[in-house]
Amino acid sequence: MHTKTIAQLIEGLRSKEFSSVELTRHYLQRIKERDGTYNSYITVTEEAALAQAEAADQRLAAGDDSPLCGVPIAHKDIFCTTGIRTSCGSKMLDNFIAPYDATIVENYQKAGAVMLGKTNMDEFAMGSSNETSYYGPVKNPWNTNCVPGGSSGGSAAAVAALLAPAATASDTGGSIRQPAALCNLTGLKPTYGRVSRWGMIAFASSLDQAGTLTRTAEDSAIMLNAMASFDAKDSTCVDQPLEDYTAGLSNSLQGLTIGIPEEYFGEGLNPQTAERVQAAIKVYESLGATTKSISLPHTHLAVPAYYVIAPAECSANLSRFDGVRYGHRCDDPKDLADLYKRSRGEGFGDEVKRRILVGTYALSAGYYDAYYNKAQQVRRLIKQDFVDAFNQVDVVLGPTSPSPAFEFGAKSDDPVAMYLEDIYTIATNLAGLPGLSIPCGMVDNKPVGLQLIGNYFAEGKLLNVAHQFQLATDFHQQLAPETA
Amino acid sequence: MEWETVIGLEIHVQLSTQSKIFSGASTAFGAAPNSQACAIDLAMPGTLPVANEQAFRYAVMFGLAMNAEIGKRSVFERKNYFYPDLPKGYQTTQLEEPIVGPGVIDIELENGETKSIRLHHAHLEEDAGKSLHEDYQGMSGIDLNRAGTPLIEIVSEPDMRSAEEAVAYLKKIHSIITYLGISDGEMSQGSMRCDANVSVRLKGEEEYGTRCEIKNINSFKFVEKAINVEVERQIDLIEDGGKVVQETRLYDADKNETRSMRSKEVANDYRYFPCPDLLPVILDDDYIAEIKSTLPELPDAKRDRFVRDYNLSSYDATVLTAERATADFFETVAKTSGEPKLAANWVMVDLAAYLNKSEQKLSSCPVSAEHLAQLITRIKDGTISGKIAKQVFEAMTAGEGEPDSIIEKRGLKQVSDTGAIEKMVDEVIANNQAQVDNYKNADEQKRPKMLGFFVGQIMKASKGQANPQAVNEILLKKLNEQ
């Protein structure tokens, strides 16, 4: 059962090939037996999952046709869940239980999905390797000496290790797409504002976007159908008509124009990764698409601009973790300053502290114009690059990350090297565009990801382009060793 | 040396919306601690703000009433600092692009002159909670009911030159916000709070002196006192060869002094930046025009109308229109009784004295406008004299009901029956022959003055109920017959 895609599981449940309880038990059993190796879950919600599965079976028996009725999924531990701990990968929230559900959690409940548990992640979603989690690193199912990527490393490892058929995730600078690339998955970050941020713990509010990790583009479309909604509780959510993202999957790519940004194939890109991406371009040409070389001239400014804006927003977003109302509080504070200093000093890990300090500095009097304002100007230029590009092409194609999965510790002492992991993904967040990563081959038995970037609210087009590739190739069907 | 005082005010006004500025929690005053704080107000992780449209409407109403520019694009920013009653670790406020831009408003001074005070801007922001340091055995309690209550902060230019002007401006703002109904303006409950920036300079000097900010002054009286005592302090300091240090000071009403809270030099760097959770709010002309069309008559317009329609003096009209409730009350009395002059007198003198003495508000006053109008009508139609009316009014304030039933019950109807009055006049003349002789021997010019004695005696005999006009006529006639 665990090798089936979401589309196949829905079919199996409806045709009574298996029940939701059987399916859920099966996954819970696998998690119990195997997750000791990967550490992909922080919390497994066995009892709640079985209760939900039972209810789903009754609904299925009664003819309920909710799109995901009885399908088990995992949620990244950044999404608040009523009555179940939401840690955000941090000691700060090790004891935090929200009295509300994130809107996307609610949406999946309404769609009938069963929650298996909450997945591991970089602390407060800050990281590209899942090494900053308070709950320990997550191992890449393709090579357990390697990182799964981050920050949604737990969600990626869980799906790649077949410990969940799909998982929710979040992407602030590449946190869905880079783990998807490193774990041979399909990872979708929708347009900023397509999916509600209510109940998703904020890292950088203007960049954060929830999305999904699945094994196929079709599953991604099914998952997005349930996830997307307009939510009045999130002022940045866009009131855009909902669509059926599976509807256009089969469209032909004849006449499609794909833009290949020259800046995405420069220095820093692993040559073998580049080869796999070039091969993918050939596949698209064989499917009737035409390719066009384009320029995104401000690409080199994306990482520096991001590492001003994201830390600036995070420095304010994380101020609420002060030991006063919830979360970690130090023992016996001697006064207010001591309460703040020790609660935050003990509750946050190094990478979180680094970003709070960088952001605080960037917003300080005398530096604001040089850093924050300048970064916002750069952000507008980057957005304009894409607006110009989409006047000429339908989608933009390139590598997701510069190289395949790296070993633990390889970049953890060099923040800049780590930040460059997201060099191809960050611009999408700055521009607010949808981006998707799909498998396009292997280098040294490690997966390589192909990134597709679409115009605003063109998720349907992106998924169609990804699905057609997956019909023509079998990279996405390859499973990590010892998982089947 | 002749000194000049320079004052600018920052006034925080709580807007009387039903719910908070970024959450659906209630803003009602006086609930049990933390019973009106939802997950958003508590800054629980993952929660997001949604701006309250009513707060924007109120702010636009205020801007229009201040003849100010309306910010068609306004942006919320985060003002970062740590404090236990500030749950998010930042206050959501406006800085670069506020909802209300520059404006100007006239204030009336006691010498009858008017002066224009410029508004720098007014912005929307959220209030913080409250820290309570008593009764917790060395710990502090935090009440977040107030956290997220919408405020407008109204920032003036440093255009005021005396404490009196500052109070007049503050009263004008109070009058405008209560007319608009956008705030209850209760200073005692913190619905309106005032910070005063005060500096002094030698008269004729162009540059401003170094200013001190006096925080959170919570009554009109204290604003005046705090400014005066701070001005005195600064002048003494400079004349003794010292220098004013820019700082925040607190007014201690018990000691009538200001004292240093913290120096601005070590003040926080608030690291303002636009709040990414809230989009810029764009208002179009139609929206603003629609709000403009719903504005009530404002104090200045009402004052001019009272002068025109009721023939009141400008001073009386200003006093009567300072508070909307007073103006409405007066207008009902004036219209119902048809006697605007008498109505103005009764409202400004007798009613004001009663409210002042009993420390009551018009809203809780047992005397209704309809009853006061009836009282005035009874004076006018001769049922009672002005003097008796005071007695009736006192009974009305004691809650005894409408004037007619008080007059009836207490038998206060004026005696206009000439027969009865003649009888009383005859008695008084008979019992006071000496005074009658004096009167008759006095020359014409002195006589009217001497008449008072007889009138007094007659009124006494009638327990004040004799119609004074009839008494006068009959008395004159009878004395002349002597």
Please describe the topology of this protein.
The complex is a heterodimer of chains A (484) and B (482).
Chain A: H1 6-14, H2 20-38, E1 41-44, H3 46-61, E2 72-76, H4 103-110, E3 114-119, H5 153-160, E4 167-171, H6 177-182, E5 186-189, E6 209-214, H7 217-227, E7 257-261, H8 271-286, E8 290-294, H9 302-317, H10 336-347, H11 350-363, H12 369-389, E9 395-399, H13 415-419, H14 426-431, E10 435-443, E11 446-454, H15 459-472
Parallel strand pairs in A: 2-3, 7-8, 7-9
Antiparallel strand pairs in A: 1-3, 4-6, 5-6, 5-10, 9-11, 10-11
Helix pairs in contact in A: 2-3, 7-15, 9-11, 9-12
Chain B: E1 3-14, H1 53-65, E2 73-74, E3 76-80, E4 90-94, E5 103-108, E6 114-126, E7 130-132, E8 141-143, E9 150-156, H2 163-180, E10 192-202, E11 212-217, H3 220-239, E12 247-252, E13 257-263, E14 273-274, E15 281-282, H4 285-293, H5 299-310, H6 314-321, H7 324-337, H8 340-358, H9 369-380, H10 386-397, H11 403-410, H12 418-431, H13 433-441, H14 447-461, H15 468-481
Parallel strand pairs in B: 11-12
Antiparallel strand pairs in B: 1-9, 1-10, 2-15, 3-4, 3-14, 5-6, 6-9, 7-8, 10-11, 12-13
Helix pairs in contact in B: 2-3, 5-6, 7-8, 7-9, 9-10, 12-14, 12-15, 14-15
Following the backbone from N to C, one meets helices and strands of chain B in this order, namely EHEEEEEEEEHEEHEEEEHHHHHHHHHHHH
Low-confidence stretches of chain B: none
Rg estimate of chain B, integer Å: 30 Å
Strand order of the largest sheet of chain B: 5-6-9-1-10-11-12-13
With helices defined by DSSP (H or I, 4 residues minimum), what is the helix count of chain B? 15
Give helix % range of chain A. 25-40%
Name the shape of chain A in a single word.
globular
**Residue share in helix of chain B:** 40-55%
* Termini Cα gap of chain A: 10 Å
CATH topology of chain A: Amidase signature (AS) enzymes
